Amino acid sequence: MEKKGILIVLSGFSGAGKGTVVKRLLQKYDEYALSISMTTRAPRPGEKDGVEYFFTTREKFEEIIVRNGLIEYALYCGNYYGTPREYVEEKLSAGKNVILEIEIQGALKIKEKFPESLLIFVTPPSVMELKRRLEGRGTEEPEVIARRLARAAEESEGINAYDYIVVNDDLEVCVDEVHRLVDEARRAPVRSQEFIGKIREELKGFAKGADS
Hints:
Blueprint: E1 7-12, H1 18-28, E2 32-35, E3 37-39, E4 53-55, H2 58-66, E5 70-76, E6 79-84, H3 85-93, E7 97-101, H4 104-113, E8 118-123, H5 127-137, H6 142-155, E9 164-167, H7 171-186, H8 193-211
């Protein structure tokens, strides 16, 4: 089978815990690489440039857009978010499954450009649990939380575009389920075209030999 990795888009409502899921997935399994997104939003307490995100200005971000240096980008809650192209292509070629932790707008753009990508949507078990997690952060005002819940209502309309939904109720169970889905996806025909082509060519060779 192909050694090339697959592109995994992991999305979820703000507060669904997708960042925690990704972090644990990277700790538990060694075949993944996280694509670090670029954003124009300000760092949250404890976040470092080049670790959680590449933080930049709106002007520089728009320059990168013009240079076609992003696989995708989207405007979310007044800030740009995007995926640097070079890092992703390098890791895929090295056989790593590259995780893009991005919002639904960017996910749909990825699916258009890369039909073989795998889209997974992470959600808490209920809306009340989502609200509890947002409030539990203690970093945002009530009006910001209300905007995030309103945004989640809009995002829910796009869930049907995803390949799988995974409920994040128990972290370890959620992480193992994501890994299982990725493992299955690597063996899907749409992601094994090189292998299929090799088999076809070998069979054609045998067929010609039988006809002669």
